[in-house]
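[DERIVE STRUCTURE TOKENS]
===
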Amino acid sequence: MFNVEKLRKRPQHFLRFTGLTVSQFEGLLSQLRKAYPHFHAQRLARPTRQRQVGGGANFRLALPDRTLLVLIFLRLYLTNDLLGYLFGLDASNISCNLRLLLPLLEQRLPVPVQPRRHLAGKPPAGERRRKIGSLDELFKQYPELREVIVDATEQPIHRPQHKTKRKHRYSGKKKRHTRKVQMAVVSNGLIWQVSKSVGGRTHDLTLFHRSGVERRLPDDWGIAADKGYTGLAKHYPRRQVELPKKASKHHPLTVSEKRRNRRLAKRRIVVEHVISRVKKYQVMGSKYRHQEDQYDQVCRTVCGLVNLRTQERLAQVAA
């Protein structure tokens, strides 16, 4: 049966199965242990609970093993039945642990900033949600940053049964039904903002307007994007927007335009690498099997895990 003690003895397997090193897991676990008592008491005292506080069965696994379970789910995206065999639980227990611990992980991880109307639940009293993307934190830690790179990515989903949902989620680019999110990344690799997910039919430029990225940026910050955002500069004439130059049948690219495209591609490769790190978590890289109303929370949690590792790498470079 899987547990933290056994897996800790194999650091390489720990990293492959969870996406975190043993030291990173221990640091995250210490934060969860501090926040869990208040989080658990708040859950038991919710108005919709039918049992009195203290009623109901206790969890069979300790918090470290439950955290390991959630991380393996995000990294490998195993079925609940297989996770049940690995941890000695029923599939319903697996669902219960995922439903309860994902919000706690989201609170303690450096998750990207969300559009104002799509913020998750408030953090406990006296605590502040760890938002790596707040501009104040970015200015203090990395004053040299002056550009944000945006890109959208799609993930396959099951074909919806409802006709209207099928139409809204069908992506003409991927030729299948997808969910699309936009990530705004700064040049050091930190995910600053992730948008609310939309159906694959939504255009990248429309998703950019809805995300509110431009309104949050200072006036002296620039925006870099790919050809999917053609026309962005016309909508924001006061903002420095860099897009690759498109060639046409009668107007091929000049040598200077090709050089400019290559320079822009070298800067934009950062967001491609970040999306690749996000998709290494199979819950974001394979076909999404779960309910769509949980998609945004799962996406934010995975982005927080990616930011956690990026922060440590930047700290090592600075040291």
DSSP finds 14 helices and seven strands in the chain.
